[in-house]
From TrEMBL:
The lineage of its organism: Bacteria, Pseudomonadati, Pseudomonadota, Alphaproteobacteria, Rhodobacterales. Residues 109-198, 205-286 form the Cytochrome c domain. One of its GO terms (biological process) is proton transmembrane transport. This is Cbb3-type cytochrome c oxidase subunit. It is found in: Cell inner membrane. Component of the cbb3-type cytochrome c oxidase.
């Protein structure tokens, strides 16, 4: 402000009195609408900081009169989802697993939930796509070749108690003994016979000799024709699916120093609802089997 306002002759506007090389600065007032909008934002800002959390303090921020909190909002949202799922969870933990897939809504809910349970707890061993890892003896869960059984109840049991672990006394258990007492030629012959069971390249003379050794030492667990035995998780040796590899070397390695797969129990870690959900998910991956006496075939999902 100058005490002695000077009017610019060309525009008729007051000048600030500043002049650079004869060029003078006009003192054009702000438009009214702009000014009022500006005041309004200040008022809005003040009201906002009173109503909502705003000013940072030593620990946390001022809470605001409305008591609003994004954290509380998320918690409420989670509670709302849990409540809306409560009925489904209740039904899931009580339903007879053999008929779960007859209840479309419940089945869909279980498979969705089971997918996340699998990603978080199972994929590190069985693979993100459940394809397994042959080198480590982590079985493929996509096929219909089951070590321990592929009905809903079989899978649920495997998941609940695990396999050959020390934590759960009800874990599935069996042990293939080492055949390191056999002579090299005998081991070789037995391995040739094992390969002949699934029509892989083999030496027919050796395999014929191996047949007797197999019948005496292996058939009790793997079956006369090598079809395996689910009671004890003994793999089918007559199909194209191998837990530990189908090469002569891989078979010899298993005979001399058998490796046994270990899986942890999940009952305590996951709880009943999640065990059932992940069971429904694994079952639906492709290899699920109908329960004995269930006339309906397994789903083609
Ligand atoms: C630490 C590794 C590991 C984890 C984690 C794991 N598994 Fe396994 N699982 C195995 C191994 C090893 C076997 C095979 C054991 C054997 O040789 O009999 C197996 C076997 C199975 C089988 C039996 C397959 C058949 O052919 O009968 C099912 C079903 C299964 N797992 C499901 C799951 C599910 C579901 C989860 C997650 C909740 C899970 N596994 C987590 C290692 C694991
Ligand atoms: C007491 C039961 C038992 C006996 C006896 C036994 N096995 Fe096994 N065998 C098993 C089990 C259980 C497994 C699965 C091990 C695992 O979890 O990886 C297995 C796995 C194998 C495998 C790996 C299969 C694959 O899919 O990769 C071969 C090969 C095999 N056995 C061959 C033999 C031969 C040959 C004999 C006889 C000389 C024999 N086994 C005797 C129980 C037995």
């Amino acid at each position: 402000m100058t005490d002695n306002p000077k009017i610019d002759p060309t525009t008729g506007t007051e000048t600030t009195g500043h002049s650079w090389d004869g060029i003078e600065e006009l003192n054009t007032p702000l438009p009214r609408w702009w000014l009022w909008t500006f005041y309004a934002t200040i008022v809005w800002g003040v009201i906002y900081t009173i109503l909502y959390p705003a000013w940072p303090m030593v620990s946390g921020a001022t809470a605001g009169l409305l008591g609003y909190s994004t954290r509380a909002e998320v918690a409420a949202e989670i509670e709302r989802v849990d409540l809306s799922n409560a009925d489904l969870i209740d039904s899931l933990v009580t339903v007879d697993l053999a008929v779960l897939r007859d209840n479309e809504d419940l089945h869909r809910f279980a498979v969705q939930a089971g997918r996340s349970v699998f990603a978080a707890n199972c994929s590190q061993c069985h693979g993100a796509g459940a394809g397994g890892v042959v080198a480590s003896g982590y079985p493929n869960l996509l096929d219909d070749d089951w070590l321990w059984g592929g009905t809903m109840d079989d899978i649920a049991y495997t998941v609940r108690h695990g396999i050959r672990n020390e934590e759960d006394p009800d874990a599935r258990f069996s042990e293939m003994p080492p055949f390191d007492w056999m002579e090299d030629a005998e081991l070789d012959a037995t391995a040739h016979f094992v390969r002949s069971l699934s029509d892989l390249d083999h030496n027919a003379t050796a395999a014929a000799k191996g047949a007797t050794l197999y019948a005496d030492n292996c058939s009790a667990c793997h079956g006369e024709k090598g079809l395996g035995n689910r009671e004890i998780g003994a793999p089918n040796l007559a199909d194209a699916i191998w837990l530990r590899g189908d090469s002569q070397e891989a078979i010899l390695r298993q005979l001399k120093a058998p490796r046994m797969g270990v899986m942890p129990p999940w009952q305590a870690r996951l709880g009943e609802a999640e065990v059932r959900a992940v069971t429904a998910y694994v079952y639906g991956l492709g290899g699920g089997e109908a329960a004995v006496g269930d006339a309906e075939a397994a789903p083609a999902e």
